[in-house]
Structure formats: C-alpha cells, structure tokens
Design a protein that fits this description.
14 strands; alpha/beta; Rossmann fold; five-stranded parallel sheet; single chain
Length: 450
C-alpha cells in the first residue's frame, strides 16, 4: 500500500548530505513496512536489524563503537554496508544508548545511510535520561493512513488524485461521501485497511481493530515506573469518549487525582496515541506566542480505533452520517484533527491549535486554528452551510482575521459574510470575512484554498 512519506524517505536517501534518520510514530502505523518498501522498490542494498529480536554484542558495551558494530553486522550478513546501502535499526527503543550513538554515523561514516524506527521513544528517553543528538539526526513523523492513501489502497486512485490536485467535480461528491463513511469506520491503520482490501467483513475489520487496541494496552506495563498501568489503561479508553472536549481531569478517571491523570495523559501524548490541541489566543503572529498549555483538548490517533472503542458499527455510521456530523460532530472533528496534525509537514512533531473563550456570557470555540502566509486561519467543523456560525462571528469580530475554512458535508463553495454585533450594548462592531466551505474529504488539499 502506497504511503506518501515514501517520497520523503527516498529523497533523504538520495541526498548528498544526509543525517541519520529516525522515523517516529505510534505502533502499527506502517513504519517498518514503509522502509522495507522504499528499499525494495528502489533496489537498495538493505540491512534490517530488529533490536527487539536480535542481539548484537557490540551494543551491550557501556560505550558503543560504530566500527565494532559494523564489523559485527558484516559478520552476520556476510557483507558490509556501503555508501549504496540502507542500514535500518528497527525497534531502536530497545537499545536506548544507540539513539545517542547515531550521531557518530554522521560524524565518522557520513557516506552510510542509516535509518531507525521505533515506538514509545519519548518514554524511553525520559526513563533513561538520554538526549537526542540534536543537529546530528533528522526526524520524520508517521501517522495512520490518510483518506487519500486509503483511496489508493482500495483502488480508487482517480478520487485520490482528484482531491490532491483539487480537481474534484460535483458529480463525484456522493461517491466520495460513501467512501468517507467507510474510512470513518475502517480508519487508517494499515493492518485494518489490508483486512478490508482482502474482502473481509466489517465484523472482521472490527476484530483487527480490537486486536490493535489490545496491543496498545499491552504496552501500558512499560509505563509502570511512572504511573500505574491500570490507571493509564482507563485514561486511554476514556480518551475516546472525550474527543474535542476541553480536558477536565475528573472526566477521565474517578479513582485518580488530577496529578496522576495529567501524568497519564502526558505519557499517552508522548507515545503518540492521543493528539493534543492546545489553546492559543490567536491575537497575533506567531500563533504559538499566545499558547495556554494548561487549556487543551484531545483527539485519538485513529478514527477507526476511536469508533471501535466507542462501539460504533458501520451501519450506524452509514445511516446516521449527517447526524453524526452536525449534532454529534466529534467523528468529523476527529477526522479533521487526524489529517490536520501534519499541516506543517512530517518533519515537525504532530500538533494542533484551537481557540477557546470560556469566560463570561459570550462563550465561543473555534475547532482548529492554523498559521499560514502570515495570517491565522480559523477552521470550523460540522457547521451547515448557511447555518449559525456564532463562534466564528465572535472570533472574527475580536481577532480581525478575514478568512475562515468551514468543513461539512456540502460541496465546495466560497462566500463572504459580514458579522455585526452590539458590543456591551454600546458600540456596533462589524467585520467582513471570506468563508471557504469544503467537504470533509478535501482536508488534504486545504492549502490550495489558503
């Protein structure tokens, strides 16, 4: 199954001045398979070392010698890595010292292409008190399959191409909406998508999703030194029911205190199984200049896994699609969040921002906010075209940004709106704003409209 990040991996490999690369991301999003695919499709001399399954004597020493490690690799593979090879350390979190040692590949063996992948890296690093070799290692972040990657995988290349090239025609809308419903249920975990492609039933798809959830739960004892693993399991499962809501610790676990719940949430964020959206005042540039890290909401790593935890069946999503979008819009928000987290590219830590006014009589919330082209653009999800946009009105009047994106289930449409309000029953405030209406499935071409 084609992953768009393959192009970035190949560009890195072909670079004349490449740093060692760490491919980061949660478990089972396809990191190992993608690296193998790039090597195979480009006939690269490939060395794969799984540090969870294989033991290397040179990696047990207090100080790792790169030359000794290369000698041992040559002994096991009966050939030595060269400038045309790709040396892959999988599950690198199993040998934390190697993470720090990667810098010496760049300093002493710049001709070698070295890539590593692993999960729970942040947890291991904090536990072992090691540091990433900043400036000597490059990072890429991998997330579940996007909707367009899903379309490619199931043979709907024409629709994927139309979205990415911003060439969607109105006659495609109904078909794309039907496919979107399937993605809402299946999600983007590669093993789940493959199960669907193989012609398995939605019941079997759900069984694979449940297996993946249990795999994540099996990792929780690894967090035990920092928090009781039963507690973090409760927080993990409850997170699926708190999508898009401002975090209130008492909603996650009635048996734990705020400090323990906060620590559990932070661990799950480090493991990349939940995604935080942090409040910004959005008063000026850069958007992160006015962050309030204590005010945030959460999204799940994958919409399919979220629905599995919430026990939403496919027939329910299919029959109640509009209702789920408009009155219970957390599924739509989850979809947008899952795709928007890499708006700034896959070289940055996946992150989201939103705006909240939670005081006084004029409470308001903008689902997401992004910074692009020296402006901040608010993004609303699930509002009907022509419907009430109260929060957007409050935001526009207060912040004076003149462009907004609204995602819903209607076809592409742009219009201008003038918001007028009496401020404190004295001054009349007015502002004009250009609203770009987009169907949810257009999220991957959002930059074309900004």
């Amino acid at each position: 199954m084609k992953r768009f990040i393959e192009n970035d991996l190949l560009s890195w490999y072909q670079s004349t001045d490449r740093l060692p690369l760490i491919l980061r991301g949660p478990r089972q999003v396809g990191k190992t398979t993608t690296i193998r695919t790039v090597a195979k499709d480009n006939n690269i001399d490939f060395f794969e070392i799984n540090l969870e399954k294989e033991r290397y004597y040179s990696l047990t020493k207090f100080k790792i010698s790169i030359d000794d490690l290369l000698d041992e690799i040559e002994s096991k593979f009966k050939r030595r890595p060269t400038k045309n090879s790709l040396l892959f350390f999988d599950e690198i979190q199993e040998v934390p010292a190697l993470i720090e040692t990667l810098r010496f590949f760049y300093e002493d063996h710049k001709d070698l292409a070295v890539i590593a992948a692993g999960s729970l890296l942040e947890l291991v690093i904090k536990k072992e008190e090691i540091s990433f070799p900043v400036g000597r290692v490059r990072f890429l972040y991998m997330t579940p399959m996007t909707f367009c990657e899903f379309l490619l995988a199931i043979g709907e290349e024409k629709f994927s191409q139309a979205i990415l090239e911003n060439k969607v025609k109105e006659f495609m809308h109904n078909d794309l909406t039907k496919l979107l419903k399937k993605y809402f249920y299946i999600g983007g975990m590669p093993k789940v998508v493959l199960t669907f492609i193989e012609g398995k039933s939605f019941k079997e798809v759900r069984e694979v999703q449940t297996d993946i959830i249990e795999t994540y739960a099996a990792d929780f004892p690894k967090y035990a030194k920092r928090i009781d693993y039963k507690r973090i399991e409760r927080i993990f499962k409850q997170a699926a029911y708190q999508i898009g809501k401002k975090v209130k610790y008492q909603n996650f676990d009635s048996e734990s205190g705020a400090r323990e719940i906060k620590r559990g949430i932070e661990l799950l964020i480090d493991a990349m199984v939940i995604i935080p959206a942090i409040h910004s005042e959005c008063s000026g540039l850069p958007i992160d200049a006015s962050l309030s890290n204590s005010i945030y909401k959460l999204y799940f790593l994958d919409i399919g896994l979220m629905n599995a935890l919430q026990k939403f069946e496919y027939h329910f999503i299919d029959e109640h699609f509009d209702e789920l979008l408009l009155s219970k819009g957390v599924i739509a928000e989850q979809f947008i969040a899952q795709h928007l987290q890499q708006f700034y590219g896959n070289r940055q830590t996946p992150e989201l921002r939103y705006w909240l006014r939670d005081k006084g009589s004029s409470k308001a919330e903008i689902d997401f906010a992004i910074q692009i082209n020296q402006k901040i653009v608010p993004i609303e999800v699930k509002a009907e075209k022509g419907g009430k946009l109260k929060s957007l009105m409050v935001f526009a009047l207060e912040k004076k940004w003149n462009q907004a994106i609204v995602f819903n289930n209607n076809f592409i449409n742009k219009y201008k709106s003038t918001f007028i309000t009496n401020h404190l029953k004295k001054d009349v405030l007015t502002t004009d704003i250009e609203i770009q209406n987009l169907p949810l499935y257009m999220i991957e071409s959002i930059k074309e409209f900004l």
